[in-house]
Design brief:
The structure holds three protein chains of three kinds. Chain A is mainly α. Chain A contains 21 helices and two strands. Chain B has a two-stranded antiparallel ribbon. In chain B, α14 packs parallel to α17. The chains are: A mainly alpha, B mainly alpha, C mainly alpha.
Chain lengths: 491, 490, 118
């Protein structure tokens, strides 16, 4: 049983999705999805433990050995991400029942959970597989279900956001497909490890170069790297609140994972550092993302949208770390993957609670929230402080590592810009805090604190933000080893 | 009663936090709520005294909480400078709570529970700053202090308070993130440690340019030291209720700032290194400019609290100046001035608050003839003002004296002129208040409007105690200096 | 030059189709047409895979003693999956367009953008 964990990780939510459809009643579907997600979380914990103690696991689907069969390969990097995705899905799902009941039409709620499970299966599949074509398939599984989830938003703009994302996402996925096809033509294999061994032989050809370019651009579209980010703010802003929390905490992380996997494992760090200044480009784009998105975030009227723009900015930080190309930079990126999942999870969950009670997340509607929903407001503030990077929160840990990584490379201006960028976060968080705490609530309506079922997972995330800001042993040691392993691969 | 030193130190920092649940629990019962604060303050003072005794006895006092990142710990270690700061903060907390009881009730402030709760957290943060073993711990508590005093500054909730809070947090957070944090990270990368080490942590032969840049980053990064041009937050913070201004923005917060500067100069750079850096001279000029300019601005303020705020900026300049003089006497004078100025300035703020509560006056120009109604308040004000000016028989005399010695030691003779000039300016803008109150007669129109007289007795008691302490400090300066000479400079 | 054009003609077809599809996605205002463009774009990639699997002179990959050269079946299998994915995407896209048309009363990008503005 234990030896089949890698496939169980993926197949469990994948099979649970149609079963969920049979259940019919939304409440049952929710309970079932939650149980499935929790089981997936359990599996990912076991996997991480196993990898941590015994090294990478190779699992051959149907017993067909790689490179002929499909291999699932779990190393420290994806074990860590599997845990992030499955646990965030579980925590967010725990708090979504009421939010979904309020935001999604009754006859679509069961379908909502089905899509959720499919999306989860897709994301976990991308992470677990060691086969390049499998990546594409799972990417489309998760994308198609994501389009559906987004389109379930209450506002009709959600439909439009979903359609736009569908077009852009499909183009991105097709680019990845082209890249994988070109790689296959050059090497005759789809297994990532096999590719890693065979690509260096043909690395100087234009075809491999084109393959790399297609894959990177395709992934960056999914990743919402500036300037390919335009789909993200609308998608996040109009999707049902729970979906936003889920996607923000997981989907972009998986895209970053793909970028890392292709850049460092498949093509190898040496290839990625080739003649075109890709690394410098990443750093530049990352910085532009931080500044432009943060500035736009400051101007938003809808806070959900502001936090969505903040996601674009935070992705910028991850890309900067990646662009440094060092173990320290990679570790900073990986840490921020984890930490950002926690803070965005907390922020969007608190906004979900607000949307549940107030029916809106516009800045004006947040007036006096501290009196009506004190726990939710406090959770938002703490999540915001973590986003800013105040000590004793996870945000500080990310920033610490990122700044050290840039300074090690002697990039003073980049380090300075990173810090200045986080001051912009102060601005877009604090304008919300001021409205929540110092403006009187409109007298007309009666609003009470969010239900316990929402507050519990919300505060779990908030406490995680603080806990992992103090006890950093787990994420720091895992990411350090994962970064080392990634860079040592090609040598 | 025996207690391990680790537990004692942890308790010293946690006592104010432990009081918070009690404060919240008795949110509706004023007397019990304030009793909780008072008891916590008393316990804290007792704990600090306990630590003090053990330190005197030569015990090594250290504790470690967590290792945040490899090599970076939240840890505490007690040495004379931090001990003194902790003693000041804890004992003045007690006095301030007494004062606040009179002030907050006399003034019918809203949200008093929130006020006392955040106040306690702020004190805990100050204790953390005071007892920190390394720069990282200090930074963490420094940031906590910025954040938990924000609700105190914006207590009134008005637009003005909101704006003040924005400036307050904006400057303090941005300087700490943009300058302090990178300076700390570079120090960490350069020397591999952030522990406060006598004589500094940098290896010999570290590039002078790098050290100069770092010193500048630290000097401006510690926004709480209110070195010009990053001083604007302090006047903005004056929208807070007076007990907050008194304890936090005359004692705890600003002193945390200059204390940090002093710690960095002595234990991160080492005074020898600072003295040899070319940039130090400029920082001394800047501190002098800060002293004089702030005094000049203070003269033009009609609002009492604003005037006191600028006076604080000027006085903080003394302490920063002493640190940058980087001689034994300079450091001693700075440390001493932390204590002397604390006693003096808190009294002045208490008086300003008392005047506001009793007579509803906030402007200097309205004080004419008020001395006859509030003789004790204005007497206390005069004593405290003398201490700030540096005249006997008040404590301020000694710190100024030692600072001057320090200037001579460092061959910075123009500093003497600056200090003398500043004292003159102090006389002009501080003594104007009691002079108006005692010597002029009240305008006829409002002679009978306020039959009030003095402020509520707890407030009056508090301000008399602190005023007396200014005088007591004059006579006890010897032992204090002896204690402070225990700061290991090399 | 002509040699390159002729021997690699499959790639030229792929590229032309790809650009046509891409252009339609960008330039067309009608949502259905955009989706058709997307389909052409995807189809071009399918052709890329399929044509790459052809081995000159090879037969269909059905084991037979008389034949020794087979075309590579793997790309074809892969692309079967991709076609399924493509159909799913198209179906979802069309469903979205129907919902959009119900909500906005139009399937033109311009109209929808206008209504979103106000």
């Amino acid at each position: 049983m234990l030896s089949h964990l890698p496939i169980l990780q993926v197949i469990l939510p994948l099979l649970a999705a149609p079963s969920c459809l049979i259940l019919g009643r939304p409440a049952l579907a929710w309970g079932f999805s939650f149980a499935t997600s929790a089981a997936a979380m359990l599996i990912s914990m076991l996997l991480l433990q196993q990898v941590w103690l015994e090294g990478p696991i190779s699992y051959f689907l149907g017993g067909w050995e790689a490179p002929w069969g499909i291999e699932y390969r779990i190393d420290l990097l994806n074990a860590f991400l599997l845990l992030i995705v499955s646990s965030l899905s579980t925590v967010v799902l725990a708090g979504t029942r009421q939010s979904v009941a309020a935001e999604v039409e009754a006859n679509r709620q069961t379908l909502f959970y089905v899509s959720w499970l499919l999306c989860l299966a897709g994301l976990l599949g991308i992470l677990a597989t060691g086969d390049a074509f499998n990546v594409f398939v799972f990417l489309e599984v998760s994308s198609l279900s994501t389009y559906t989830l987004i389109s379930l938003g209450r506002d009709r703009k959600a439909l439009w956001a979903s359609y736009q994302y569908l077009i852009v996402g499909t183009i991105g996925a097709t680019f990845i497909l082209i890249g994988i096809g070109l790689m296959y033509m050059m090497t005759g294999t789809l297994n990532m490890q096999d590719l890693a061994q065979r690509l260096p032989v043909v690395a100087d050809t234009r075809t491999v170069f084109a393959a790399y370019a297609f894959v990177i651009v395709g992934v960056c579209l999914k990743l919402a790297l500036f300037p390919l980010h335009l789909w993200l703010p609308n998608a996040y802003a109009y999707a049902p609140s729970a979906v936003t929390a889920f996607l923000a905490a997981t989907a972009t992380k998986v895209a970053v994972y793909l970028l890392i996997r292709f850049s460092f494992t498949v093509f190898g760090a040496d290839f990625s550092a080739m003649d075109i200044p890709l690394h410098q480009l990443f750093i530049a784009l990352g910085l532009i993302a931080v500044f432009s998105a943060s500035l736009v975030a400051i101007l938003q009227i809808d806070i959900k949208r502001a936090i969505a723009y903040s996601s674009v900015a935070q992705i910028g930080y991850m890309i900067i770390g990646l662009g440094l190309g060092t173990a320290a930079g990679l570790q900073a990126t990986l840490l921020h993957l984890f930490n950002h999942a926690l803070m965005k999870g907390a922020l969007f969950m608190s906004l979900a609670a607000v949307a549940l009670r107030m029916g809106s997340t516009r800045l004006d509607d947040l007036a006096g929230l501290s009196q009506r929903m004190p726990l939710t407001a406090m959770a938002f503030v703490l999540g915001g402080l973590s986003l800013i990077g105040v000590p004793l929160t996870v945000g500080f840990i990310s920033k610490w590592y990122l700044v050290i990584a840039t300074l090690e490379m002697g990039m003073w201006p980049v380090a300075a810009l990173i810090l200045v960028g986080s001051l912009l976060a102060v601005m877009y968080i604090w304008r919300v805090v001021e409205v929540m705490y110092f403006r009187d609530p409109p007298a007309s309506t009666q609003v009470s604190e969010a239900p316990v079922s929402v507050l519990l997972p919300l505060w779990l995330l908030v406490i995680a933000n603080i806990y992992f800001g103090i006890d950093t042993a787990l994420p720091v040691s895992v990411t350090a080893d994962a970064a080392q392993a990634l860079l040592g691969w090609g040598k | 009663m025996t207690m391990t030193t680790e537990l004692l130190i942890s308790l010293t920092i946690l006592t104010p936090v432990l009081a918070v649940p009690g404060i919240l629990l008795f949110g509706n019962k004023q007397n019990l709520r304030e009793a909780v604060s008072l008891i916590a303050a008393a316990v804290l003072t007792w704990l600090s005294l306990n630590l003090f005794q053990q330190l005197q006895a030569g015990t090594v006092l250290a504790a470690q909480w967590w290792e945040l990142l490899p090599g970076l710990t939240i840890a505490f270690h007690i040495e004379p400078l931090g001990m003194m700061f902790a003693l000041i903060a804890s004992s003045l907390w007690f006095v301030t709570v007494v004062y606040a009881i009179g002030y907050m009730r006399g003034h019918n402030e809203q949200n008093q529970t929130r006020f006392y709760a955040y106040f306690a957290v702020a004190i805990a943060a100050v204790m953390g700053v005071a007892l920190a073993e390394n720069l990282f711990t200090l930074f963490v508590f420094y940031e906590v202090l910025s954040l938990c005093t924000y609700p105190l500054v914006t207590h009134a909730g008005t637009d003005k308070a909101k704006h003040g809070g924005r400036v307050y947090l904006g400057i303090l957070l941005s300087t700490s993130i943009a300058f302090f944090l990178p300076a700390m990270i570079i120090t960490w990368m350069q020397s591999g440690t952030l522990s406060f080490t006598p004589g500094g942590v940098f290896a010999d032969g570290t590039s002078v340019v790098l050290l100069s840049v770092l010193l500048l980053l630290f000097a401006f990064g510690v926004g709480k030291a209110a070195l010009m041009p990053f001083h604007r937050w302090l006047p903005s913070a004056m929208v807070a209720p007076t007990p907050v201004s008194a304890l936090l923005h005359a004692v705890a917060v600003v002193k945390a700032g200059v204390f940090t500067v002093l710690k960095v100069v002595v234990f991160i750079f080492g005074i020898d290194a600072v003295q040899s850096l070319p940039v130090t001279q400029w920082l001394i000029y800047l501190a002098c400019a800060s002293i004089l300019l702030a005094s000049l601005v203070a003269m033009r303020q009609d609002n009492i609290k604003a005037r006191l705020a600028y006076s604080t900026i000027s006085q903080l300049g003394y302490i920063t100046l002493g640190a940058f003089l980087a001689s034994a006497n300079g450091v001693l004078g700075s440390a001493l001035h932390i204590a002397m100025h604390a006693a003096g300035k808190i009294t002045l703020f208490f008086c300003a608050g008392a005047i506001y509560v009793a007579a509803h006056k906030t402007l200097v120009s309205e004080l004419d003839g008020l001395g006859r109604k509030m003789p004790y308040t204005f007497a206390a004000f005069t004593i405290a003002a003398l201490s700030i000016i540096g005249l006997p028989p008040t404590g301020g005399t000694w710190s100024k004296w030692t600072l001057m010695l320090g200037a001579v030691d460092s061959d910075q003779l123009f500093v003497l002129a600056v200090l003398a000039l500043s004292s003159l300016l102090n006389i002009v803008y501080l003594l104007e208040l009691p002079a108006r109150a005692f010597l002029r007669s009240a305008p006829a129109s409002e002679s009978d409007h306020h039959h009030g007289g003095e402020a509520p007795w707890p407030s009056l008691l508090a301000l008399c105690v602190t005023a007396l302490s200014c005088i007591v400090l004059f006579f006890t300066a010897g032992p204090i200096m002896q204690f402070l000479q225990g700061i290991s400079l090399t | 030059m002509t040699d390159m054009l002729l021997t690699h003609y499959n790639y030229w077809v792929v590229m032309v189709l790809m650009m046509i599809g891409f252009y339609i996605v960008i330039a067309q205002g009608n949502l259905v047409k955009k989706l058709v463009g997307l389909n052409i774009f995807q189809t071009s990639v399918f052709i890329l895979y399929i044509s790459a699997g052809k081995v000159s002179g090879g037969s269909a990959p059905i084991l037979d003693d008389a034949i020794s050269v087979y075309s590579n079946p793997l790309p074809h299998v892969l692309i079967l999956t991709a076609i399924v994915v493509g159909i799913a995407t198209t179906a979802l896209g069309l469903a979205l367009i129907i919902r959009l048309r119900e909500a906005y009363g139009s399937a033109e990008e311009k109209d929808i953008q206008e209504q979103n503005q106000c």
